[in-house]
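Progress note, sequence design subtask.
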């Protein structure tokens, strides 16, 4: 299928720009550009999609864990025994009992709904909580002063920072001599942190577990036990073991069941985006076909002379297929280089575009996560390149076959 011998010399000559072939040369350049843009767009879009999915799942799993043990009626009695039993399960690398309650948090007339997590003292640090960035204060200080750790967006809405005080209002009422009343208490803000997922950053409040048990009147119970495994996919193997150990004391949910709709939506979006952006390459290969048809028409006399000199139809076909593939490979190479440059500088490009347009290109309120990330899946990149080569080959074969079937007698008769 590829030219060899004199065929290669003819193909190279047809690829070189000449004054009388200016239109064909421009068409070839446009073909290279179109293929390059198609490959660039597909690789970059899929890399950003992969990075978005990986970052989002990392943050969600870091916040909710791979397996969640939840109590019947919202409480797990004797959770210390369950924790001790779970420690013997192979594949479990982290166990964290915690409480979780919905509240309203207020400050100087500002109020916002939030979720308070009562966390053991040894988990009140940035590393174990999977916090992306500590903006103000010290996470460990929450256990020392009985204070709170606030998500960045929540702190911004309340206009508070480390050292300020906020009031937590529980929806559960308490009985007083004057009737039922909401339970509320003021706490100092020990730290303001960024988890990395907008939804969590605008609702997260961390509190020492013993303080949460007192405030929400949980006694010696917790509402959940979070487990981290060696990997997210290990839940298929370890999950049934955990379920067997917990038994009827609580019920077990995996990260897949907790995020089923999100995982399905991300997978569907990934496939659809590949198909839609892949259409750019399909359109681009039409330029290769059209430029080769123009080249065949322009070089019909040359083709006829080559045929009279003994060139076979197969030789003519290989010449034009080689020209088409060279154009396609040039475009693919340029597209890969553009993709590498874009992915390597994705954050800088985002910042530059935001400065030039004054727009928030990656709004965390819409995208859920606060930073853009691009991860290249080499299988997808190879599939993109293979698809471009295959489509280009098909686009080149059609005009090449037409060139091979030209009748030299008919062509030379009118020359």
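Output:
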């Amino acid at each position: 299928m590829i030219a060899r011998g004199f065929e290669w010399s003819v193909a190279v000559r047809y690829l070189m720009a000449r004054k009388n072939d200016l239109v064909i040369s421009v068409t070839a350049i446009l073909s290279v550009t179109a293929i390059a843009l198609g490959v660039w767009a597909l690789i970059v879009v899929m890399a950003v999609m992969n990075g978005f999915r990986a970052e989002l799942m990392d943050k969600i799993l870091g916040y909710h864990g791979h397996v969640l043990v939840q109590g019947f009626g919202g409480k797990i009695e004797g959770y210390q025994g369950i924790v001790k039993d779970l420690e013997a399960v192979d594949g479990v690398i982290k166990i964290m009992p915690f409480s979780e309650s919905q509240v309203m948090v207020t400050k100087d007339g500002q109020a916002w709904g939030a979720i308070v997590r009562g966390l053991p003292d040894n988990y009140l640090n940035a590393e174990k909580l999977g916090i992306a960035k500590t903006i103000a204060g010290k996470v460990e200080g929450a256990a020392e002063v009985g204070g709170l750790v606030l998500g960045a967006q929540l702190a911004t809405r309340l206009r508070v920072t480390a050292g300020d005080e906020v009031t937590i209002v529980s929806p559960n009422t308490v009985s007083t001599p004057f009737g039922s009343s909401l339970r509320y208490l003021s706490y100092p803000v020990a730290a303001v942190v960024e988890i990395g997922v907008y939804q969590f950053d605008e609702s997260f409040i961390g509190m020492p577990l013993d303080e949460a048990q007192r405030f929400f009147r949980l006694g010696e119970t917790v509402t959940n036990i979070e487990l981290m495994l060696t990997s997210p996919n290990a839940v298929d193997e370890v999950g049934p073991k955990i379920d067997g150990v917990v038994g009827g004391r609580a019920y077990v949910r995996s990260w897949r069941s907790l995020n089923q709709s999100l995982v399905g939506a991300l997978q569907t979006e990934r496939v659809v985006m590949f198909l839609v952006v892949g259409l750019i390459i399909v359109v681009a290969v039409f330029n290769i076909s059209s430029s080769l048809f123009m080249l065949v028409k322009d070089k019909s006399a040359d083709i006829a002379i080559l045929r009279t000199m003994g060139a076979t139809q197969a030789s003519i076909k290989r010449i034009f297929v080689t020209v088409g593939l060279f154009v396609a490979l040039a475009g693919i190479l340029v597209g890969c280089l553009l993709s590498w440059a874009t992915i390597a500088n994705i954050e800088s490009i985002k910042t530059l575009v935001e400065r030039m347009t004054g727009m928030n290109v990656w709004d965390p309120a819409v995208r859920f996560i606060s930073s853009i990330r691009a991860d290249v899946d080499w299988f997808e990149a190879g599939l993109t390149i293979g698809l471009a080569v295959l489509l280009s080959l098909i686009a080149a074969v059609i005009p090449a076959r037409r060139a091979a079937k030209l009748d030299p007698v008919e062509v030379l008769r009118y020359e």
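The chain has a mean pLDDT of 81. Work on this subtask will continue into the next period as scheduled.
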